[in-house]
Amino acid sequence: MHIQKIFMLAINMLCGGGVIFSYVHGLMSNPDSGPALWGEVPKTLTPLYTVSMFTAAAGYLLFTYYVFFRLDPEAARIGRFGYGLFNLLYLLILVPSILWMPFTFSMIANPSPVTWVMIRTVLALVGIGSLAMLAAILKVQPGPQGLPHVLAVIGCIAFSFQTAVLDALVWTHYFPLRY
Which residues have CB under 8 Å from 53's CB, separation 6+? Predict the structure, then answer.
């Protein structure tokens, strides 16, 4: 297996596991705080969030399948960058994702402007990373490879909608800044 694919696998296993751990640990450590995570997001938007979370997760799997199984690390180019750019983008998405839940519970327990900035920063980084991933998938050469490429683009759009729009913009608008 190519070293860049080994890195991608390690990043997704370690950092993806870190995201899952941060969510499970956060919710288990704060069992009654689940509703507080919604802030003041209108109830009318929660069905959109619920559907989007599932489509974003499926989308992540679709574009990851494409990048891992359908692209040749030796040949893939994104502008002047090689396949390793995908690994940097996964890090940009996953590392801040690990921090969102702990920062948010910290904000609920002990609100501060610094924590609020950190929450907005990690969500912005994930959104930027997801949009950059979409751009990379759209621009990767050699060109598209049929249905897997189409599904990767659709999946990355769904993931980007969740992270760059709903999380980084809508949720932060409705999450109260009280300190």
Answer: 162
Which two structure tokens, joined as six digits, stand for 176? 């109260």
Integer Cα distance of 176 and 108 in angstroms: 9
Ranges assigned E (strand) in 40-168: 77-78, 81-82
Give CA–CA dist 140/135, Å, rounded: 8
User: In the chain, how many H helices and how many E strands?
Assistant: 6, 2
In contact, 120 and 164? CB cutoff 8 Å: no
d(CA 120, CA 127): 10
What CA–CA distance (Å, rounded) separates 105 from 164? 21
Cβ–Cβ under 8 Å, residues 133 and 89: yes
In the chain, domain spans: 1-20+71-179
Residue 42 exposed, middle or buried by CB count within 10 Å (0-12, 13-18, 19+): exposed
Q: Give pTM, 2 decimals.
A: 0.94
Alpha helices in 2-72 (DSSP H): 3-29, 46-65
Which pLDDT tens digit goes with each residue over 18-64?
999 999 999 999 888 878 899 899 999 999 999 999 999 999 999 99
The dihedral of CA 171, 21, 126, 139: what is its sign?
Answer: negative
CB 34 within 8 A of CB 27: yes
Both structure tokens of 133: 């991933």
